[in-house]
């Protein structure tokens, strides 16, 4: 059996599909933010996962190129990934943290930058969230797992 990446098996449409999923991810984040369905930060995400993992619908792990070799961050990512896999939570690696910060506001009250390395998207408290953009992202994650790409990487365009 040949191990190919998702992009290699998707053929010519891979760039279009990746762009489509990136756009859907932006839509998910933009609609979840005003509903209070976003948890930002490695520590905050770990607390949220511990308290109510069934409410988490998506986990984003984000790095920039200079942080790829940060061993402590990679250990945190490994533990979060293992927990998410154990609890059937879809995971995406996101490049372009600057764009992620733009989408989510990027600053705590007082002007301090937020830790964008881990972002959780949760269901609103009152209902189960039915969003076509979220469905598209979840389908992409499922298709990637079928191809043994457990944590696919999405590049958010500028």
From TrEMBL:
Entry-linked Pfam families: Ribosomal_L7Ae
Transmembrane segments: none
Biological process per Gene Ontology, one example term: regulation of cell cycle
Subcellular location: Nucleus
Gene3D superfamilies per UniProt: 3.30.1330.30
Cell cycle keyword on record: yes
Chief location category: nucleus
Ribosomal protein eL8/eL30/eS12/Gadd45 domain span: 24-105
Keywords: Cell cycle, DNA damage, Growth arrest, Nucleus, Phosphoprotein
Annotated Gene Ontology cellular component terms: cytoplasm; nucleus
PANTHER family named among the record's database cross-references: GROWTH ARREST AND DNA DAMAGE-INDUCIBLE PROTEIN GADD45, GROWTH ARREST AND DNA DAMAGE-INDUCIBLE PROTEIN GADD45 ALPHA
Family designation: Belongs to the GADD45 family.
Protein name listed in UniProt: Growth arrest and DNA damage-inducible protein GADD45 alpha
Organism: Hucho hucho (huchen)
